[in-house]
Amino acid sequence: MELVTIEGKWDFNYTYFAGESASRFFHELRENQRIMGTRCTKCEKLLVPARAYCDVCMSVTDEWVEVGPEGTLETFTIITTAFPGLPKPPIVMAYVTLDGADTALINLVHGMDLSDIEKAAQKLNALPRVRVEFIDEPKGRITDFSFKLI
Amino acid sequence: MTDAADVYIEGVAIELSWADRTRSLTELIFTTVSKAVDDAGRGYEGIDSVVLAAHDLVDGRSLSSMVTAPAAGAYLRDEVRYSDDGAGAFAAAVARIEADEAERSIVAAWGRASEHDVEEFSRALFDRIFLAPLGLEELHVSALNAQKWRIDGGDASHVETAQARRATAAKANPRALHAGGKRSTPAYPLASDHLPLWADVVAAVVISKRPSGVRIKGLGLSSEPSWLGDRGVAKAPALKRAAQRALSEAQIGVDEIELFEIDGMTLYDEAIALEAIGLAATGEGMRSLAHDPRCNPSGGSMAGYGVPAMGLARIVEATLQLRGAAGPVQQGRPRTAMASGQSVTAAQTQTVVVLEAA
User: Fold this and answer.
1) Beta carbons of A77 and B129 less than 8 Å apart
2) How near does any CA of chain A get to the CA of B47, in Å?
3) How far is A143 from chain B, CA to nearest CA, in Å?
4) Which of B263, B261, B248 minimizes the C-alpha distance to B292?
5) A13 touches B at CB < 8 Å
6) Cross-chain Cβ contact B229/A104 below 8 Å
7) pLDDT tens-digit profile of A112-149?
8) Which of B110, B132, B148, B266 could cysteine-pair with B234, CB 3.0–4.6 Å?
């Protein structure tokens, strides 16, 4: 008896409402090429990406502050699998705390020689300073920018 | 804080398999739940509630529990559907019994990795606005944590020994996956054998207030921010908090625990977790994993891994140890054990359970 298997695929469409805070964050990326954070009214931490509330204090944020464009790499991974819309692997993904921010931002690190993974990792282990670099035509998305070692 | 002292584990069962085409998901669930009920020894007498840990995206079935719950014994019973890790479902079931809302409960959790693309599933879990466009996967978060642990001075000299010990334990564990399974592509600094062996996993337990072999002494749950960049990277603060709560409720120190089954997706996640629960000093978790026989004698994620069942799987393994029924991986005759489970998405939520041989 042949054992039956049924192929399946979920392919639904969604429209995600980013909200005012995320929209303004993306607007700043597209129009002004700058990274913005918002400050918690209770703990006073500058939270990046900008958001409407601090989910640690459960308080609203108010002040909008530009951070970076330089910062410090906190940790990283080197990924060898491909993903649509991203550069050909290997790619470096890292947490970076931009100057002035109290939280880290995750994004790709560009411009490194990754022909020798271990050698590249040694360089990143030193937790180098990085600078935000924008693409030529920002679209108001998190992929508008990446980090580059200074 | 709850008082879990009067709830007992009556029966347990776990089964790991891979792409068994002779059985559907519901048949796998039925088999394991039936074994747990048989293990408890009283049939379905008095079972009035079922708590399920299942994830629609994992199962590839919208409203998965509608299809799967009856296979776990939910027909005409009080049923709670928990869309996260099985240890959290276990905590919910215990709370129901403590509150006298239920007398005898089945807790079941499952995940069938062979039915879906694990990486694709993983990418679908993350925030759609800020993270999904970056192609982030669960194991990338584990890799970022692993590297942070190394950067912060974690003692990596024990990595090979710890990995070898996990492999030996998994090979000896009769409940581990011994054929089939799948591993993802590792991201630096992880190596292939540090990764979980994806498996089809079903775990089930039966609990009640009737005195039985294993008593629940303490429970703790905690959660981290959703923003990955806000978290304590490589520190697992939610696990730390959950362990403190569970130990406090159990009125016991971590040094008095004689057996640990701590959930972690990778080798490094397990080492970091041992530090978070307070067993190992900061940076010394890998040493414990390498040399402390109390730590994850099941083989951890090497033995087979299928979300969201792993927290309940750890509870099953710990229970078997306390009963002296763990087989070749039995570690003496421990009187106390700690088990933990982490949430499906980047270990955001954590549940810790302290158990005692009654």
Assistant:
1) no
2) 34
3) 7
4) B261
5) no
6) yes
7) 999 999 999 999 999 999 999 999 999 999 999 999 99
8) B148
Chain A CB contacts of B140 under 8 Å are 77, 79, 93
Chain B contact for A14, CB < 8 A? yes
Question: Of B204, B170, B241, nearest to A56 (Cα)?
Answer: B241
CA distance B4 to chain A (A): 28
- State the Cα–Cα distance between residues B195 and B197, nearest whole angstrom: 6
A26 forms bridges with which residues in the sheet?
Answer: none
pLDDT at B4 over 50: no
Which residues in chain A have Cβ-Cβ distances shorter than 8 Å to B225?
A: 55-56
Cβ atoms < 10 Å from Cβ of B75: 10
**CATH 3.40.47.10 holds for B214-357:** yes
Question: Domain segments of chain B: what residues?
Answer: 214-357
Please check whether residue A39 is in contact with residue A46, taking contact to mean a CB–CB distance below 8 angstroms: yes
More confident position, A7 or B64: A7
| A122: CB partners within 8 A, 6+ apart | none
Smallest Cβ distance to A79: which of B22, B129, B140? Answer: B140
Closest residue, chain A, to B130 (C-alpha): A142
Note the pLDDT tens digit of each residue in A5-35. Answer: 999 988 889 999 999 999 999 999 999 999 9
Task: In whole angstroms, give the CA distance from residue A35 to residue B107.
Answer: 46
CB contact under 8 A, A75 and B145: yes
Q: Summarize pLDDT for B132-162 with one digit per residue, the tens.
A: 999 999 999 999 999 999 999 999 999 999 9
On the question of pLDDT at B92 being above 50, the answer is yes
Residue B212: predicted pLDDT: 92
CA angle B231, B109, B349 (to 5 degrees): 10
Break chain A into its structural domains and give their ranges.
19-149
Helix (H) or strand (E) holding A64: strand A59-67
Q: B214-223 and B336-342: which strand pairing?
A: unpaired
What mean pLDDT comes out for the span B313-322?
98
Give every CB contact of residue B328 below 8 A, 6+ residues apart in sequence.
Answer: B172, B173, B174
- pLDDT at position B55 is 87
- Mean pLDDT (chain A, rounded): 95
